[in-house]
Amino acid sequence: MTAHAVWPTRPHPIAIVNAQSRTLAKLVRQMKEGCKKDEEAKESTLCGLNPCLKCLQPDILYHLGLSTDTTDFPKVFGDVRFVCMGGTPGRMENFAYYVMQEIGLKINAATKLRNISEAGQRFSLFKVGPVLCASHGMGCPSISILLHELIKMMYHAKCKDPVFIRIGTSGGIGVEPGTVIITSEAIDGRLNPAHEILVHGVSVQHASQLDESLADEIKMCHDPCKDTYEAVIGRTLCAHDFYEGQSRLDGAFCEYTPEMKKTYLEQLQSQEVKNIEMESLAFAALTSRANIRGAVVCVAILNRLNGDQIKTPHEVLSKWEKRPQELVARYIRKSLYYNENDDDSEQPEDETEGAAAGTGAGAGDTQKAPAAEAE
Ligand code: R2B
Ligand code: URA
Question: Which reaction does this chain catalyze (predicted)?
Answer without folding.
Answer: uridine + phosphate = alpha-D-ribose 1-phosphate + uracil
